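Input chain follows. Return structure tokens only.
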Amino acid sequence: MSRNLIVGQSGGPTAVINESLVGVVQAAQASPEVDRVLGMRRGIEGLLEGSLIDLTDLDADRAERIAGTPGAALGSCRRRITDEDIERAGATLRDHDVKYVCYIGGNDSADTTHRISAESENHLGLHAVAVPKTIDNDLPETDHCPGYGSIARFVATAVLETALDTRSLPRAYPIKIIEVMGRDAGWVAVSAGLGSRNPELGPHVIWPPELPFDPAHFLARIEQAHRDCGYAIAVVAETIRDKHGQPVGAELASVDDFGHPIMRGTADTLMRLVERELGVTARFDKPGGLQRSSFCLRSDVDAKEAREVGTEAVRLVLEGQTDVMVGLRRLDDSPYRVETFPIPLEKIANRQRALPADYFDPRELRATDAFRRYAQPLLGAGPIGPFETL
């Protein structure tokens, strides 16, 4: 019987998701224990549909170009698998003599890998390992997630640049509200201040999803910054909710297969609140998908670690491990060092890690020094900027 390995990508693409893919493929190619390397088109959907690609002979030059390409090279999906899906997936895996599964994704993908692992114990004889990937940085048990360092660098840079833009025309639109991703955890929003070394530039207000939205507090901080600086920069997570748990956004567009809300209108709602209550002109920026997978500002540390977790996933499945995710354990901040280790998927699937309380000051609405020490190494080499003002 052949000993084939299959790899798939799932969830929102990041700037480094293809690094993990190449890490898996090249580690599998190098192993005499793997006969063929297969890829799922559009993640688990491609597996269910029998839409696979043979990656066994992917040459090194093309692999490196793929690693440096935004988006998910194999295609991605968001799909909650059913018991019937598990049976169909098992049939496809058996038909292609697959013994090893590496699935790249976040919380929901960890659940998919966990279910495949559980089923394999009974029928499939597989070894399945999850490869971490999420800009939300909300996987429990691991220090951080590949994909986060790059979006943090993007958001920190974008917020600093829009602050400088707003500072240039404070009488035209003195209040700027920037809406960022992050689902139910504030890791992305709180990274917005990592690029600024001048408190005047802001961001003057950061509102993560863990903090119930208080209009009076929000407006007071905006008004104070406007009075002190002549303008104000606010960064808000797209999923912030009020004290009753209701979305601040004007419209709940829909929910995905896993029940996660897809929000619209948060920044627009707050812009109108500011104009109505404070009587000043406001604008909003929403980088949307650009922040998630932009290659131009990706972190070199993030790229290196994304490759490493893909490589490590193959090592784990080949040594017989299954139903685990590759985690990252921090060894030191200066110099920054991490190591990989396996985490049981039952500790990760369908769970989220919120921003720790000591990483954010809810009164001043800004990141703490503890968060800066945690996040700064993940941004990678090179300063943001340098920028100078008169």
